[in-house]
Amino acid sequence: MKPLNVGVIRTLLQGELIHGTDDGVVTAAVFYNRQEIEQTNTLVFLSRKEEVSWEQLKRCGPCVIITDIPVADLADGHGQTIIRVKNLVQAQWRFIEYYRGLFDIPVITITGTCGKTTTKEMIKHLLSVDHNVQASISSINEPRKSFGYLLGIDDTTDVAVFEHGLGNPGNITHQCMIYQPTIGIITNIGAHHLDGCKTLEGYIQAKGEIVKGVAPDGVLILNADDQNTKQISLADFTGKVVYIGVNDTADLRATDIRYGHGGMQFTLHLRQMKYPVFVPGFGEHQVYNALAALAAVHEIGIGISEAAKRLATFGGLQRHLEMSEGIGGSTIIDDTWTINPTSVEAALKVLDHIGQGKKVVLLLGDIKRLGDYELQYHQQIGSLVAKRKVHTLITIGTKAEEIAKQAKRDGFRGKIHAFPKVTPEIEAILEKTLDPNSLLLIKGPMSSRSMIELAERLKNHHF
After folding, report:
1. Do 251 and 244 contact (CB within 8 A), yes or no?
2. CATH at residue 452
3. Is 317 within a domain?
4. Total structural domains in the chain?
5. Is residue 335 within 8 Å of 107, Cβ to Cβ?
């Protein structure tokens, strides 16, 4: 965080100094009970509705407290600088608006059902060669983290790139108010978080909140081939729209897409120019991630040739279709980062290419947060599996069992096993099944520690 003078903050928030002086400097800021106070000289927003431990604040202090607690209850300053404001929520937003306004830098935010983390990490990789980049950590993208990520921007920051978390309508609007993005990206929109958004249409509109959140003269990067993204209205957006995809309508278009050694090769078309591109990681979805990342850094001023050169050295992410040798000399594809219908279909398409002539084994877990559509989407995945040449299908979880049932109803010819949870019996089946000609995809929710640990044992031969 950029150090700020206490007096400047008090004036900004139109606060009354109850204890302490205006002379100090704060070097961090938190919402009390939402983030931990990790250092002295922290600006703490404290609501009168919250139960406060003044002893804790003493241990962490000295701090500067911004609060709406009545003056009569603040007779003892507890050794802290205390500034009282009439409306704490307004003070918080006034501070956020002020702090974001201190930095005239590109801020990129990304939403979508799949590919957010990969695209964000690609952008960070491409920019970090010659820019100081502030970014959200891994896929930790929930709205309550946004304030801390914003404060990670300081005078040394050249560019910021953040993911949007979405559990309910309004989440992206809230984050955009904090980040004030100059470039917004929607990777794709499938079915997810239907428990919070109720319907697919509601989920699409919640994703579309990014359109109003991007600066009026900013840039939107959209997937021209994604049908759900096309349902989002752009009528009120006054900035620039850049489309990526594989069809002629895209501004950045990929052709000649093919599987190479360790990743995807394609030709990128931009205006009248063509560029050869290699992106580590398999699948057409990885091409779309690359196109979005290349489009974003190109808007910042990095040439496509240079960006493509940097992209070829992208390291990929753990547990994102991560391939390694496993038990019995088999190939394990660890995709336990997350699971939703869109990502399952993308993984199956990868297997269609790299699994030819192989003994393909699927290990699929529950898909969560589908609300009233839980049964429908698990059955759809079962139907997708039934269309493919798969040797063995194993499901883990009571929801995933419907994948197995539907595959059987659709005439699946391979072996089927359904388990309510990870058990030693699963490992015994795999030990007998897997050999050097086997390809195992294990895909489950990131909340399933047992599936993640199973994947690790399979990769490390530890049964």
Report:
1. yes
2. 3.90.190.20
3. no
4. 3
5. no
- Residue 384 belongs to a domain: yes
Contact by Cβ (8 Å): 308, 290: no
Tell me if 42 sits within 8 A of 28, measured CB to CB. yes
Give me the DSSP letters along 182-201: SEEEE----S--HHHH-SHH
Task: Please state whether 258 falls in left (phi above 0), alpha (psi between -120 and 50) or beta.
Answer: beta
Entry pTM: 0.95
Strand order in the sheet with 240-245: 133-135, 159-163, 107-111, 183-186, 219-223, 240-245, 252-260, 263-270, 273-280
The answer to the question of residue 120 being in a domain is: yes
Q: Tell me the average confidence (pLDDT) per consecutive run of 10 residues in the chain, 463 residues long.
A: 98 96 96 91 95 89 94 87 97 98 98 97 98 97 96 98 95 98 98 94 97 98 98 97 97 98 97 97 97 98 98 94 94 95 96 96 96 96 97 97 98 97 96 96 93 92 58
Rg of the chain over CA atoms, in angstroms? 25
Range of the domain at 34: 4-93
